[in-house]
Specification:
about 15% helix; telomerase inhibitor activity; 5-stranded mixed β-barrel; about 30% strand; 10 helices; DNA-binding; 3 domains; OB fold (Dihydrolipoamide Acetyltransferase, E2P); G-rich strand telomeric DNA binding
Length: about 475
DNA sequence: GTTTAGGTTTAG
């Protein structure tokens, strides 16, 4: 016994499962449902997995406690299950958990850190597991495993009539009747459609009762029905959710318990219908998923202007979890430490720019997950610190800052109002006074050209009717672009 | 020593 080896698990390929055997398996998730209450004593998770063998195997997991269920957030996630029993149902092999069952889940994204998701206090994990996860990720990336399933869509891209998954934060909730609950959520993006607003009694609302008009425009009212009401009852405002198989419906809607006059009809409504078909359900995201919302909010140029800084709003943007412990420092310490460091601060908002989003140029670098907001102040030369920053790309930031662009533009512009040359920064500049033909000639030398004009001795961006950026042959309208290095 | 569900859309 003293020489007993550490336990070594062996994993069955999914095309070699024999009825009645108890096995350990690895698989890529191609379908899943959030755990739902069964008619028996347990919650039930339903999932389908596959592996290199291309065999797709349905799995049914019964556990009394939700935390013992597989922590699956999306198709492509990788699960490792210990002690599942193969049995035949409808002439196919399925896997059901059996005594001593445990499950660990991993993100399926190639190159992402291999971080086990489990509530088990101790679990086996060795270099072979690391390798297996990475192999499954690579294999899955080369396959079209779930091309037709619904995908996570931000509110800004929601299509009427479509089913989709929504990643969002719960701001408030209220019961509508015994079969329907209202969830007020946002994801930091603005839906182009007018949103249905459900009016409920204030005294039954949990969470913030009212929001500023600006924020209200970002909030989607989601009605969840039947079996989802029980799940919704346990949710606390502030929690981050993924709502699966949500349906956006345009046109008149009626809601039980409410008269039609309580609804603004003909608006886009969000319904989570009863049942669990197509994975319909509500999943609670772990803290490290908050970044998803923070970065989408930032990429959208999300700003809020509430008189009362709510704890929920605060949470959305300030409590970024960076996956490491870091002490909070004061703003003066940040200033002293110079460029290129990452800090945690907690501060009170005193003022913000821009008040109108089209006044800002947003540069979003998907590689470094960094958002740069170049504000109107920069063009007017009113400030030295022209860039409001998030993220961690000191090189790019420094190159912009070191150039002191507004000063440089003003200087060069006074000498030669036609062209300003700036080769080091990721942006080149084009000024008023040139024709389109001249600008097209400049395209050969400069990758990115932002048209600006002079007014009142200052430079300013054109309004939204003009392209804000010329990149090669492409013209970008609006105010956003992905920078590629 | 093993009931529950067994993917496949509400119809508000």
């Amino acid at each position: 016994l003293s020489s007993a080896k550490a336990p070594k698990y062996t994993y069955a390929k999914l095309d070699s499962l024999k009825a009645g055997s108890v096995v350990n398996v690895y698989g890529v998730v191609v379908f899943f449902k959030q755990p739902f209450k069964s008619r028996g004593t347990d919650f039930c998770s339903s999932l389908k997995i596959t592996d290199h063998s291309n065999e797709k195997i349905g799995c049914t997991i019964f556990c009394e406690k939700l935390e013992d269920h597989p922590k699956i957030f999306r198709n492509g996630d990788i699960v490792r299950m210990h002690r599942v029993k193969a049995q035949v149902f409808n002439k196919s092999i399925t896997l059901v958990n059996t005594f001593g069952f445990s499950v660990v889940t991993f993100d399926g994204v190639k190159g992402a850190p291999v971080e086990p998701r489990t509530s088990s206090r101790s679990f086996h994990f060795d270099p072979d597991d690391q390798r297996t996860v990475e192999e499954l990720r690579s294999w899955a990336a080369s396959q079209a495993l779930f091309a037709s399933v619904t995908s996570t869509v931000p509110l800004s891209a929601v299509q009427p009539k479509a089913y989709f998954d929504l990643t969002c934060q719960l701001l408030a909730k209220a019961p509508v009747d015994t079969t329907c609950t209202l969830l007020r959520v946002w994801d930091g993006t603005r839906c182009p459609h007018t949103l249905l607003k459900v009016i409920v009694e204030p005294h039954v609302t949990e969470g913030q009762l009212s929001f500023s008009k600006e924020r209200e425009n970002l909030i989607a009212d989601v009605l969840v029905y039947d079996n989802h009401v029980e799940v919704a009852r346990k949710l606390k405002p502030g929690v981050f959710l993924r709502i699966y198989n949500l349906r956006a419906i345009a046109g008149s809607s009626t809601v039980p318990g409410l008269t039609r006059s309580q609804l603004q009809v003909d608006h886009l409504a969000f319904h989570l219908h009863g049942g669990t078909s197509y994975g319909r359900g509500i999943g609670i995201l772990p803290d490290n998923k908050k970044n998803v919302i923070c970065s989408s909010a930032a990429a959208e140029g999300w700003m809020f202007n509430d008189e009362h800084f709510s704890s929920v709003g605060w949470c959305l943007c300030s409590e970024r979890s960076c996956g490491h412990d870091m002490q909070k420092v004061t703003l003066s310490e940040v200033k002293r430490s110079g460029l290129g460091r990452v800090h945690h601060v907690r501060a009170q908002l005193k003022a913000y720019e821009p008040h109108r989003l089209h006044e800002a140029l947003k540069l979003y670098c998907s590689k470094s997950l960094t958002v740069y907001l170049l504000t109107q102040l920069m063009f007017e030369g009113k400030t030295k610190d022209v860039i409001l920053l998030m993220g961690n790309n000191p090189q790019l930031l420094e190159s912009i800052k070191a150039k002191n662009i507004s000063k440089e533009i003003s200087r060069l512009w006074s000498r030669n109002p036609s062209i300003i040359k700036s080769t080091k920064t990721p942006i080149s500049w084009y000024l008023t006074g040139s024709t389109l033909e001249e600008m097209c000639q400049l395209m050969a030398s400069y990758q990115n050209i932002i048209p600006v004009r002079a007014s009142g001795g200052h430079l300013s961006l054109f309004d939204l009717s003009a392209p804000f950026l010329f990149r090669g042959r492409k013209r970008y309208y609006g105010s956003e672009i992905n920078l590629t290095h």
